[in-house]
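Data availability (excerpt). The following record was deposited with the supplementary files.
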Amino acid sequence: MTVVERPDRVTTFHYNEEGELLSWEYGNVSLTYHSPLPDWDYPLTEGKAWSLRVGYNLTVYDVEMAGILLETGEVVGFEALVTRDETYQCAKVHITDLDELNRLGENWTTVTNQYVWVSTEAGLVRSESTSYLYINGTFMDEEQRILQLQDVIWPED
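Predicted structure:
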């Protein structure tokens, strides 16, 4: 289990013993994947690429909706990122997600282009993304987001 604090919410992520993502939740929202999302395929090397397709169930206030996530990703390089007093050697990864959700009879499609910087020591260090929302094929919204690791709290032995 991993707990991530963001400015707008605290999300809990649940993993299996192989490190694959099973589900996540915050407040009255939860999402469960039909099959686990794989962990990063370490070691990350420049040019390493992947794609996946997985169905999921999203529940919001006891209303369940079905969706499909299509993702492609590629390691595009390596950079050192500084967070507070720590420097992390990170793989820079470009990810494109196509998320299709049947939301109460409407087709909600979100296209997200993002760069993430991930280290073996701390996991996700930084994320920069732009998402575009379409409802029944009509453009509705654009959202840009930057997330930056602030601190790592390791469990006590």
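Summary of structural features: Residues 2-148 form one domain.
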